[in-house]
Write a structure and sequence with these properties.
The complex is a heterodimer of chains A (371) and B (315). Chain A has 371 residues and is mostly helical. In chain A, 67% of the residues lie in helices and 8% in strands. Chain A has a two-stranded antiparallel sheet with strand order 1-6. The chains are: A mainly alpha (371), B alpha/beta (315).
Chain lengths: 371, 315
Amino acid sequence: MLSTLRSVLRFQESGLILVILALGALLYGFSGSVRAPVFERGEDGSRQRAFITDTSGERVPAFVERNKFLNAQNLAQLAKDTSFIAIMAVGMAFVIISGGIDLSVGSTYALASVLGALALQQFGPEGPGGDTGTWGIVLGASICLGTAVVCGFFNGGLIVALRVHPFIITLGTMAILRGIAFVVTKGQSVGGFPQDFRDLVRFEAGQGLSLVPLVVMIVVTLLGWLILARLAAGRRVYAVGGNELASRFSGIRVERVKLGVYVMSGLCAGIAALLSLGYYGAATSGDGQGYELNVIAAAVVGGASLSGGRGSALGVVLGALIIQMINSGIVILGIDQNYSQIIIGSVVIAAVVLDNVNSWLSRRRMQKPAA
Amino acid sequence: MRSLTLLLLLALAGTLTAAPRTISIGLVAKSQGNPVFQAARVGAEDAAKALSLKHGVTIKIDWRTPNEEDAQRQAEAIEQLVLAGAEGIAVSCSDANKLTDAINSAVSNGVPVATFDSDAPNSKRFVTYGIDDIECGKQVMEELAKLMNGKGIIAVIAGNQNAPNLQKRVQGVREIAKKYPGITVRGVYYHKETPQDAAAKVEQVMQANPDITGWAMIGGWPLFTDNALKWEPGTVKCVSVDALPAQLAYIRSGHVPVLLAQQCYEWGKRSVELLVDKIVLKKNPPEQKEISPLIPVTKDNVDAYAKNWATWLPK
């Protein structure tokens, strides 16, 4: 039992998991209950309110009491809200581990969204050919993801070619990409996508559980983990972030690694943008403003070191989950929103400190000579 | 002993039945930092207090507004409010398209939604309250044209380029400007909706275009600072939407002869009244669209109008 606990505590992200469990317990204990309406499937298969007969013989809508935090709908909502930032944070993890930074991730998200939206709109119900279905969706999705990859390639290419700090380059592209998004859309919201696309992303399992964003987040995290922790390409990212000069002398093609991590960051922003298009059904050039800070915060809370060489895909997703749990917790606990930024900032610092303490303890345990 | 137990049970039952029903109403505005939405929040809280007494219930306002304009965050807030047990939601939409599904989902979960200030016309919201944005733009331009005697060069300051309600106001300005052949619209200038950014934009535009003789401000952002208009009063005419406390100084100084006040306190107050009618009295409004007129504020009524802010601002 004790040895199992020890091995769990040695797990790199155990500190973050402890924080999540503590937050979950806190929210479960203090959130109280909520009366949720009960729904049932009608004869035509549509979702409709369920009714019961009360003691006076009157038919009244049925309600069920449940914990505000620990219920399937809320957990699915939490996962969905986390997924957009978490997916982008996986891409950001590659960049930060390599010792870089990508401030343009929110603008990449916006540009990929609006270009994907403009393409999908052409194949939607109000497009010239009406709702064309699968091929229109594939083309729209390809444009969305392709745009994001090109943005990442553009960032990486400039950083490698000009040898300018990524902070400066991505600060510039942050403005350029959002500017292009505005010029293309003329500031208008773009909607009206193929219904199959909307239905696919908004697919609900059970009673209102939108699980597609969660599934995509898990797949992206697993792929990120696989590349970073199990493939040579991932080890090269750590090596470049840990010591760029040593990596260069040991034969690693540093420029290629750098280009790759920015492409990965762009791709992840594109995946998040595509999910957002399907889930929310519209895009504007103002989308994703300030997301770069949320994504970087998630990565840092998740254990990625801004000086490079340290971090993991799972860690940054857990970091995004912690931030979203705090956001949701503020609503669930009914805390005045005026205090939300103070709470989030404080918990972010506390989470990082706890994670650092855990890492320090792990290192100490490993350094101890065997008895 | 038995009678004592009975008394205790009766007392307990009395306590239980006396506990008033609590109704939670979510209020989702566009951004935390904009003072017009803080006034809406005060309006909503005042209405909640008054209606709690009137109906013998406890009405609680759950304020869930993004720090900066972000339609996705607003949609998430609506979904979270539904799960947290809100019985009604009032929202000012940053992007109507993006919020339509979230509003419809709330309605299908039995939570009525009202919109204020900025509508989502294709959603299942039961009512919208606010100004007619095209008419607002027209009124701004009519007032400005009157002040400029129908001739001169004007600029339009227009805030966030993504906001559909602001685009409609710009459309209204342009429609009326066309009626005056002596008036030229030099440009429509967008900016981040902070007072500093807006004031800087006015300054930049004036430096690049010193021949501008009139400003149509379809939002009052530059006038939330105290030195946005760096010209002698009367040399450049200016008409602005909104009449927040900081803006009133420009009326007194003569820089801005007319402010057209949106009833931002009423956004919150009226939305809550409409929602409580729907939730408690099961009563729908006579019309799905309730227009609130703009109130002209000039030197003649500025002092009387200023007194309102003592009650409208957060305490």
